[in-house]
């Protein structure tokens, strides 16, 4: 049962989909020892930690606990471009006071020649990547702004971003790119 749960958690994590306790209820509710052993196996074998990001909905993610050089991400080659874009978006949100309207985010991405309405050769549908994938993966949180017509949203760091990176990493990143894109962060 432990290996079955470990496999389930690893499969869910491959797509960075948060794990809900109710999806595998028989292991979570009845056998806390199985969950604890699965957590130890994930830590010892894969260097991953099972972290609860939403205590009301009992939602979890796996966090990579392997040592890494400062500011470096351990991800598959295919994901590096998306993670690069995500880091740029997280940096922009951070530099703008931890929250940005969607219109400001799209305007910023346009300045980088990443257009939400057009198919990008690396990112595909950028609007879908940001509003669906990054939000579903809990890297970003999207909140409707009340009384706006058409509806507007604001974006903030999501719980996965809070757990997987730090404000220090983001500041280091901004310090590196600012000489090239200084005017964009203002």
Automatic annotation (TrEMBL):
Q: Which GO terms describe its cellular component?
A: nucleus
Q: Where is the MAGE domain?
A: 1-186
Could you name the domain of life of the organism this protein comes from? Eukaryota
Protein name, as recorded: NSE3 protein
- The organism is Oriolus oriolus
What lineage, starting at the top, does this entry show? Eukaryota, Metazoa, Chordata, Craniata, Vertebrata
């Amino acid at each position: 049962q432990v290996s079955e749960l470990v496999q389930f958690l690893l499969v869910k994590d491959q797509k960075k989909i948060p794990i809900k306790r109710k999806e595998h209820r028989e292991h979570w509710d009845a056998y806390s020892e199985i969950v604890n052993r699965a957590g130890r196996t994930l830590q010892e074998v894969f260097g991953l930690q099972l972290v609860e990001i939403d205590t009301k909905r009992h939602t979890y993610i796996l966090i990579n606990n392997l040592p890494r050089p400062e500011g470096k991400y351990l991800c598959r080659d295919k994901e590096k471009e998306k993670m690069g874009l995500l880091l740029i978006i997280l940096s922009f949100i951070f530099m703008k006071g931890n929250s940005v309207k969607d219109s400001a985010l799209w305007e910023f991405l346009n300045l980088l020649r990443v257009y939400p309405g057009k198919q990008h050769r690396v990112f595909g549908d950028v609007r879908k990547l940001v509003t669906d994938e990054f939000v579903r993966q809990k890297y970003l949180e999207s909140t409707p702004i009340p009384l706006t017509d058409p509806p507007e949203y604001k974006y903030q760091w999501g719980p996965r971003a809070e757990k997987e990176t730090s404000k220090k990493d983001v500041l280091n990143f901004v310090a590196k790119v600012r000489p090239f894109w200084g005017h964009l962060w203002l």
